[in-house]
Amino acid sequence: MKPFAPMPLSIKLPLLAAAMMILVGAVASHQVLRSLARVQDARIQELAQMHVEGLSVALGPLVLRHDVWEVYDTLDRAAQGGEGRRMILTAVADDRGRVLAATDPRRVPMDSDIAELAGDAVALENLSVDGSRPVLSLLAPLIYQGRMVGQIATELDVSDLLTERRRAVLILIFGNAVAIGLLSLAGFVAMRTMLRPVTTLARQMTETQGEPHQIPIAEIPRGDGELARLAHTYNSMVDAVAAKAEAERRLAERERFVALGRLSSSLAHEINNPLGGLLNATDTIRAFADRPDVVRRSADLVERGLRHLRDVTRVTLDQNRIDTTDRDLGPDDFEDLKLLIQPEVSRHGLDLEWSVDLTGGAECKMPAGPVRQIVLNLLLNACAASGQSGRVGLRARSGVEQLTLQVTNTGPDMPQSALDRLLDDGPLLPGGGVGLRLVRELVKGLGGWIAHAHENGVTRITVGLPIVREAANAQE
After folding, report:
1. What is the model's pLDDT at position 394?
2. How far apart are CA 90 and CA 117, in angstroms?
3. Reported pTM
4. How far is C-alpha 137 from the geometric centre of its chain's CA atoms?
5. How many structural domains are present in the chain?
6. What single string gives the DSSP state of each residue in 83-106?
7. Dihedral of CA 96/100/103/105: which sign?
8. Are residues 291 and 340 in the same domain?
């Protein structure tokens, strides 16, 4: 069946039907030819029996008297009759097998042995038109008054019967070929029509470049048949897939905004404290305008506060810009993340362990935006899980083939709903960590992997991201 595997179903089924019809036609033709052969055998046996019985009645007394001329005259008159045209040769012998007379004396001389003529002759009950010989030989006893007085040898011309059989074979072959061709064509058209919904379904599933589309209503069969139900079920599945994708997109957006809201709240505290110091410095400058040393110290304080606010604002803008994939990852990105996460660490009273080493991947090409988003979401989730006075850590290492990010935190292990969001692509359940599904989508988009472990009260989330070297890109 392998050579037929690439064929569409609308072609394989008509071919199968044609093969079955050929088989049925062959069996039926064989039965017809067998029936024709039986009819011809019965006809030739009946004709030969009538010939032998007629000659037995007419020649019996003549053979007993060995009246050669009367025997020959009887054979000659029999050869002039209707059945004589089929009996091309007849010879009569006495009880010793010596020929008394024959319709062709030159071929069968008188007083010759009849066995020489009947070398391949058969008995009356075995006479059969076998299809290979146009002349059949018959050897039958000459019975008169209940006893055998001689023998009759006859050759029968059956060429017309063979012609009739060959004509029947040609008619059967031609008729079967025409019938099979017409029925196969009709079956192909009918099968293509019936399987059109399946073809449409296959096209919708394979030619939409990963985004399934509904089957148009005009192409769905009418009624409540299997193909119609299949098409409606497919359309329902397309609606469900689209609804699921939209729900996941909205949930990812919501989680992103939740993370940004929490981050903004922490940054507000980070900005509010320097603002209080700046206002105090400006009041000091106004109050002690005549004292240069006080004004200078206050101005230095204002400058440090403004620089801090500038750095916080820059990092926030970099983190939330729309297009974050146009710049390669570098050590400054991790410094920005440290600045962003510091207010959340301070608010919870956590210890921050920070270790970044990108020297092994200095030539790597990796978009900064997705990596920053991955690390920030994992750190925010780690801060929330550690509680008060816990410990949060980041360890980033670039190797020859991948960048490894490991975020750790103390406290209880992640609940199953959070693990499902981080490690599985299944439907989202209520609950779970902030931004974990977004982390998974970003890691998958970069071709990376995620692993989770909880040992000795420490939860470790490890992310591996493949590195594309500049040299490799140049070779490509």
Report:
1. 94
2. 10
3. 0.43
4. 65
5. 3
6. GGGTEEEEEEEETTSBEEEESSTT
7. positive
8. no
